[in-house]
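Standup notes
- DV: blocked on the single-chain target, sequence here:
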Amino acid sequence: MAAKAKLAIEDCSICGGCEIALADLGVPLLKVLDKQLDLVYAPILASAIEYDQADVTFVIGTIRSKHDLERVQAARKKSKVLVSFGTCPSTGGLIGLGNLSTNQELLARAYGDKVPTDGTPELLDRLEPLSKYVKVDYVIPGCPPPGPVIKQLLGELLG
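- DV (later): unblocked, structure below
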């Protein structure tokens, strides 16, 4: 039996829709995980234990904070294949509308006059596509990506 491919799912600034799309695959996804994939990192779905290496990493969500940027740069170094999963990491999605306001305006809108001074991630000046920061091997479209497209990508990657 061949070794299972290691899959990491790096979630940045997200709404959760892409994770739900993955979970909606249900039994077919469980069969792939059982036979062909070892899920080494997926904070919203399973383990949040750090990983050393992944064959494939799905980056979900936007790169909106310096914390997000550090995570995707580290994921790129650990991954053989990096996938921009969904509209958000590819083009910004709805979260990209934040580019219409300054960071100060966004924080004031969220917190009013009581913006936390610690614990709030430092925002980047603008939301940019993932490909601006790291090499992207594949882009899977959709908000969220449709199940058949996810299945096709997994088939191609594991084929």
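- Follow-up: The mean pLDDT is 87.
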